[in-house]
């Protein structure tokens, strides 16, 4: 595995996890506020609010990881383009197909993680 492959893989994975965590924080805090308002009115127990949020985190994460992966690829390739690193890669004989293969490795890892986190049956609403 070349240095540039490890570099791009690391950048995509770190960016994907960072973007996904920020999105997860936004979504879970929004839902927490919603359930907390129900707890204040007496519709829910305070302990139930925390349990509901914890139980919903894997479902939220399995929804947000693909979006985080997509945004991570955009961020990584955009930064490589702005820094003219893509130009250097293409000038040194790296094709677009090879670049796609490099990017597919961390995205495959994210896809396996999503498959693991995705509930087998949808929750009852």
Could you describe the 3D structure shown?
The structure is a single chain. The chain has 125 residues and is mainly α. The protein has one domain. It is built from four helices and no strands. It has helices at 3-41, 46-82, 85-91, 96-117. Helix 1 packs antiparallel against helix 2 (46-82) and helix 2 runs antiparallel to helix 4 (96-117). It is elongated, with a radius of gyration of 19 Å. The termini are far apart. The model has no long low-confidence stretch (mean pLDDT 90).
| Alpha-beta classification | mainly alpha
Q: Helix and strand succession?
A: HHHH
Number of continuous helical runs: 4
Low-confidence stretches: none
Domains, number: 1
On the 0 to 100 scale, the average pLDDT is 90
Number of strands: 0
Roughly what fraction of the amino acids lie in strands? under 5%
Computed over alpha carbons, the radius of gyration is 19 Å
The profile of the biggest β sheet is: none
Overall shape: it is elongated
Query: Which range best describes the helical content: under 10%, 10-25%, 25-40%, 40-55%, 55-70% or over 70%?
Result: over 70%
Distance from N terminus to C terminus (CA atoms, Å) equals: 46 Å
């Amino acid at each position: 595995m070349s240095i540039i492959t490890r570099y791009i893989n690391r950048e995509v994975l770190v960016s994907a996890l960072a973007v996904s965590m920020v999105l997860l924080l936004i979504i879970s805090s929004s839902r927490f506020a919603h359930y907390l308002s129900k707890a204040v009115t007496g519709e829910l127990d305070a302990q139930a609010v925390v349990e509901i949020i914890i139980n919903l985190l894997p479902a939220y994460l399995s929804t947000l990881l693909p979006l985080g992966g997509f945004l991570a690829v955009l961020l990584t390739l955009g930064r490589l383009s702005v820094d003219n690193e893509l130009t250097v890669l293409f000038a040194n004989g790296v094709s677009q197909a090879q670049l796609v293969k490099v990017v597919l490795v961390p995205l495959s890892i994210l896809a396996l993680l999503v498959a693991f986190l995705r509930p087998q049956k949808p929750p009852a609403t």
